[in-house]
């Protein structure tokens, strides 16, 4: 679904690479955490997937497309297939919850009747039924992030990128958000999430790719935030089908359900 082949990104001549000879592959339906210290290159990887940045060398493939040879006029189509969620929600403050989500469909020309059906369905899925008419400032941080997730997912993109989506939220609210991203992943959507949230990574036990000054220093199935000696399980052929590893299902559900209190 997403493949980096020896990707290096240098922003300014003479600067050290933000991403340094990274090769990795994320398969359809996977859930992957990108972790690493501030400045290690996580957001740059997401920008490269969206073709908001271009590699200095190496190749990025998304859904079989080589982004190097993708013409500019096809970039909006690429991005249509990639939902994005940010730490700071980025909602339109003067629009209602419904309008914020509907806007994502309007800009890609979806007809009104489709919007009238899809938006309420998606708001229900993210747990915001009944709050359609509120404006962002009338919502909690967790609710605002749910709106942002609804907006990112309303078009059912095959890929969802999340850049620190729990960075502004308390631990319990964060778990609710993770539970939602997990549900979205179970629909078959590939999720790549950059995060510093060690609790979340430790509880979810998903694949972890760790960057250090732009280089991949760990790629581990069912990893924790920091590699520990007991968890040296190598990444071998991650199963592309989500929810298919029974131990993962039990551990993740138990943690998230208990802690989210939902
Ligand atoms: N647009 C840019 N122009 C120049 N340098 C940049 C740009 N964006 C990022 N960088 C640099 O690239 C490096 C990697 O940054 P990046 O934002 O990808 O890291 P990160 O791991 O996402 O960090 P954080 O966790 O703080 O968000 C940093 O040294 C940063 O200063």
TrEMBL record:
Q: Which residues form the ABC transporter domain?
A: 2-238
Q: How does it sit in the membrane?
A: Peripheral membrane protein
Which biological processes are named by the entry's GO terms?
A: cell division
A Pfam family hit: ABC_tran
Recorded hits in PANTHER family, A to Z, give:
CELL DIVISION ATP-BINDING PROTEIN FTSE, IMPORT ATP-BINDING PROTEIN
Q: Which NCBIfam families match?
A: FtsE
According to its UniProt entry, the function of this protein is described as: Part of the ABC transporter FtsEX involved in cellular division. Has ATPase activity.
The text of the family note is: Belongs to the ABC transporter superfamily.
Q: What is the name of this protein? A: Cell division ATP-binding protein FtsE
The species this protein was found in:
Cellulosimicrobium arenosum
- Lineage of producing organism: Bacteria, Bacillati, Actinomycetota, Actinomycetes, Micrococcales
Q: Which gene encodes it?
A: ftsE
């Amino acid at each position: 679904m997403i493949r980096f082949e020896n990707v290096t990104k240098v922003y300014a001549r003479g600067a050290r690479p933000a991403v340094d000879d990274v090769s990795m592959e994320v398969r359809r339906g996977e859930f992957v955490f990108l972790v690493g210290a501030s400045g290690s290159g996580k957001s740059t990887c997401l920008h490269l997937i969206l073709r908001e940045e271009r590699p200095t060398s190496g190749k990025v493939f998304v859904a079989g497309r080589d982004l190097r040879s993708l013409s500019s006029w096809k970039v909006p189509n690429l991005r249509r297939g990639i939902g994005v969620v940010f730490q700071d929600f980025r909602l339109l403050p003067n629009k209602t919850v419904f309008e914020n989500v509907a806007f994502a469909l309007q800009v890609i020309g979806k007809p009104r009747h489709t919007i009238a059906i899809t938006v309420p369905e998606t708001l229900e899925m993210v747990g915001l039924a009944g709050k359609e008419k509120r404006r962002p400032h009338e919502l909690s941080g967790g609710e605002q992030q749910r709106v942002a997730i609804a907006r990112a997912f309303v078009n059912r993109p095959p890929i969802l990128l999340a850049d620190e989506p729990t960075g502004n939220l308390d631990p319990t609210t964060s778990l609710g958000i993770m539970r939602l991203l997990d549900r979205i992943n179970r629909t078959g959507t590939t999720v790549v999430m950059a995060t510093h949230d060690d609790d979340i990574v430790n509880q979810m036990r998903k694949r972890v790719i760790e960057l250090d000054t732009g280089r991949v220093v760990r790629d581990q199935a069912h990893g924790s935030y920091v590699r520990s000696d007991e968890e040296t399980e190598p990444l071998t052929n991650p199963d592309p089908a989500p929810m298919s590893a029974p131990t993962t299902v039990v551990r993740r559900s138990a943690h998230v359900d208990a802690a989210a209190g939902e």
